[in-house]
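Can't paste images in this forum, so I'm doing it all in text. The chain is below; anyone willing to post the predicted structure tokens underneath?
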Amino acid sequence: MNPTRPARPLLALLATLTLAAQASTATTHALVLAALPGQIQPVAPGTRAAPELPTLTLTPALPYVHTVNVLSNGFITVAHAILTLNAAQHPQARTLAETAVQRVFAARPDLTEVDVSVYDAGSYGGFGGPLPLLTASVPRARLTDFQTWAAGHGAYERAWVNPGPAAVAPRPADRVRETTPTLTTDPAAPLTAQNRARLRDTTAQVAGGEHGGLLYRARRGTTDLAALTFDDAPHPLFEPLLLDLLRRSGAHATFFVIGRNAQAYPYFVRDMAAQGHEVGNHTYHHVRLPPLSPAAVQDELQSTDALLRDLTGKPVRYFRPPGGEYTPATLQAARDAGLTTVFWTDDPGDFQNPGDTVLERRYRAHLHAGGIVLLHDNAPQMLDVLRDFLRYARQEGVALTTVGGLPK
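Text version of the structure:
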């Protein structure tokens, strides 16, 4: 049967499945934060508090060092130092960052890399708040190069300096947790249009392959490939650890990148592309799109596309809406931008922090050829189980690739 032209019995089945899916997702959201339109942040049911990240204390202390987190992937260990400076210290940002990086390396001789994010103390709102003043990624082997740049000599390509107020995100973002992909139709739209949108969505889920700009899984008959995807990239603590694990395993992935994160940590986006991974669009501010105006949705997509093209030199092909929520207008905006909207078949719920044993059981149960795996690059428990997940996929004969590598 041609999956793009289902017979009438299949049409009836698809309509039934659509109604069931809508009923099951209608009760999945609990509101925890209300801000500007699109920034109501639901949390998936059963979400637990994230485990505390290990920290490093400098002795003697540097008063402007807010936090130093340290994490390992079993092969390398990385630190991320957060600095908060008052206005009088802003002109010294490079020098203070260099001092902090040097001190962190001295405190932990086992560190492979120290990443640093320098914020204004008065406006610091955590990761996802106002953009940093300065960021840098400093592998131990590049420490001298970083020190030379910090002293005002030469260039250092693994640093970013905020060019000014125009680069600061006007809306603070928060984590948007994916639950179940959800299509929201306009109740005022003609019933035929609503049904057509629902049919397109369910056809993409059932038949596989791309349908009307939607992709849930590879086309039926795929034998040995599954796509590995990571949302919310890049994060300065997790990214070097994640990329290192993927490099060691030989797996490739699609990273759905938040534009504001790419702006502040451009060198990690360049690393992704250079190492054979695919970079996708996850909006600029990481907001839920259904409440936004068409113009605002278009801006979220186009500004991120332009940024990613500049960083990688490649066109952006794929888009994933935060929270998995979209409307027909969202889908049309993505199509107008030349983007395919990508969802998933396998979500082990790493951002729910259910524990390593639960995550392992979930991904083992749902990993299959032709599927699309959803993980988050800044979820601590993802990093705990990823090494085993990559090994398990190899044992099962499933090669993990990018979304673009799937037969569609």
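The longest helix spans residues 294-312. Confidence is low (pLDDT under 50) at residues 1-42, 167-175.
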